[in-house]
Specification:
387 residues, alpha/beta, Transcription Regulator spoIIAA, Phosphorylase Kinase, domain 1, Aminoglycoside 3'-phosphotransferase, Chain: A, domain 2, 3 domains, 6-stranded mixed β-sheet, 16 strands, 47% helix
């Protein structure tokens, strides 16, 4: 049995390899006591990635640590986890199984969002590889939100496993013969209007779904962040009216996805399935429609190549798709009402665009164009609520 003790301020990681039994346990305990003596340690993490076996003697060492420190056991093999589970340790201390290793080398990219890249692993499976390493809380949150949406009738893909891909984490989904809607649009341009209408029907289904507001955050928080980032860009009158318009958006307990675009909608036969549920929120659908407009219309006005880079479709197809979509979403309203709704959505879209550009350091001419559009729209709009 080998062990390595690593310190990080008040936390210590204990890496154990081999067998922890009646012979090796006293040696480990002696080493731990020697290493930790006199140190202000609060948490001990036992990294069991190379631990092959633990006996009752080894478990007693862990028990003694639990009486002195906050203990967590990570990277536990299935065999060792069974021992912890049978002896009741999984009910007394946090024990995390080791993540299975998978590779996406040679796999086709079928979608990409802000947080991750989606690969087709095989005919049955897709893998979403996250771009950041510290995403385990995000993955857990996304899985919980996906389950809530699924129970409420939204066609949602729920991850059945979390794995390691290189230095990153990934969620694994069973999605038979599916591709992102962006991919399908690119390969079936003659079905553009059909896809746009299906896209609209799915979003309307989401927006009609009543949720428990305690289950997810309010999307108005996102709009308030946009405003905070841009309020200094305008004179007092414009800034004040913007704040009033945002404050008067009616709060409703309706589901919104928060990042609804064709990379996050999978086409599986005749069914659409929603992925990337970490942004799931509740609130007024007008905000979500503003986000859709941002992706398909506004950013294409100020960022050359945005649509090809992000959505994998041309600027002209992106605009045509949005026009089909928005008219289907508002089907049944008069042209005058649809035009007014579009104007309100465009204002929210431009607010997001300006916030995005300021944070990303966009060209000053592009920023100037967005600011001028916002000032004009603010002068023409009395509220942001839509019919």
């Amino acid at each position: 049995m080998d062990s390595i003790v690593l310190f990080n301020e008040n936390n210590v990681t204990l890496q154990i390899s081999g067998r922890l039994d009646s012979t090796t346990s006293p040696l480990l305990e002696e080493k731990i006591n020697s290493e930790l003596e006199g140190k202000a340690i609060k948490k001990v993490t036992i990294d069991a990635i190379k631990l092959d076996y633990i006996s009752s003697a080894g478990l007693r060492v862990v028990l003694k640590l639990m009486k002195r420190y906050d203990v967590e056991i990570i990277n536990v093999s299935s065999e060792v986890y069974e021992i912890f589970d049978m002896t009741g340790f999984t009910e007394m201390v946090k024990v995390r199984k080791a993540f299975k290793e998978m590779s996406v080398e040679g796999c086709k990219v079928i979608g990409e969002g802000a947080n991750g890249i989606v690969y087709r692993y095989n005919s049955d499976t897709i893998i979403k590889v996250y771009k950041k390493n510290d995403v385990l809380p995000l993955i857990q949150r996304e899985r919980e939100l996906a389950k809530k949406a699924f129970v409420l009738g939204i066609p949602t893909a729920i991850s059945y496993d979390v794995v390691r891909v290189g230095d990153s984490y990934a969620s694994v989904f069973e999605l038979l013969d599916s591709n992102s809607m962006s991919y399908c649009i690119g390969n079936n341009p003659e079905k553009l209007e059909e896809y746009a209408k299906e896209f609209a029907h799915l979003l309307k289904q989401i927006h009609k779904t009543i949720v428990n507001k305690n289950d997810m955050p309010p999307i108005i928080n996102t709009v308030n962040k946009w405003y905070k980032n841009i309020k200094e860009c305008f004179d007092d009158a414009t800034s004040t009216k913007l704040k009033e318009l945002i404050s008067n958006i009616k709060e409703v307990p309706l589901m919104v996805h928060g990042d609804f675009h064709t990379n996050n909608v999978m086409v599986q036969g005749d069914e659409l399935i929603l992925i990337d549920m970490d942004t799931l929120s509740y609130g007024n659908p007008v905000i979500e429609l503003g986000i859709v407009d941002f992706n398909y219309v506004t950013m294409n006005l100020y960022d050359k190549g945005n649509s090809e880079r992000f959505l994998k479709i041309s600027k002209s197809v992106s605009r045509e798709f949005f026009d089909y979509f928005i008219n289907e979403y508002f089907d049944g309203l008069s042209k005058e009402q649809i035009d007014l709704n579009k104007k309100k959505i465009s204002l929210l879209s431009h607010l997001r665009a300006l916030s995005h550009m300021i944070r990303r350091g966009f060209d000053s001419e592009a920023v100037k164009g967005v600011k001028e559009a916002i000032i004009k729209l603010v002068s023409e709009i009395d509220d942001l609520n839509i019919e």
